[in-house]
Amino acid sequence: MTTPGTSHVMKFQAPDNGEETARADLYGLLAQLFYAPPGDDLLAMIADYPSNGDGVLQQAWNELGEACKETDAQKTRDEYEHLFIGVGKPELMLYASYYLSGFLMEKPLAALRDDLAALGLARSDAMPESEDHFAALCEVMRYLITSDDAAHSSLAMQKQFFQTHLQTWAGDMCDAVMQHPQAVFYSKVAQLAKQFLEVEAQAFEMA
Known about the structure:
Elements: H1 18-35, H2 40-48, H3 56-69, H4 73-85, H5 96-101, H6 107-118, H7 134-146, H8 150-153, H9 155-165, H10 170-179, H11 185-206
């Protein structure tokens, strides 16, 4: 499984690469932003990216772009550490097991590991977080969309993984981040994530 810290080229709504590439790139971007705070280069890239179209997803993207213009790497690092790391228990959790069972490292993680093993994927030794971290799950979706293995990249496989391991809890996680009084930059990241996941859910239902 690709480690979520890996850098990806952001091509949101890229006109020459198609919708699937745009989906994969947005999953990759969300993985980066939730796995670790962005540096100044990534903030500038998001802030400067052309804004086209309308709708709730585009609005969320525009608001994130504005947030990137109003912050810097040090501020986002401080916010990330306060919200998701902290001293002792973090202010906010980014793990599926926590939202689905109330505890970390529980049955949802075991079920996820079984599904990852069936895909031939495993957690990298370089990744300190468990596989049910939101960033890791976004990375799996990115992999499924871009995989050269037709069985893995099929719409049916994407839908199954999404509905089983993301749709069941990620919206609640995004809401928790958006509602936290100390979430400034990350409230916009969570807003984009929630709108994107809702679009994905609707698309899978229509497929």
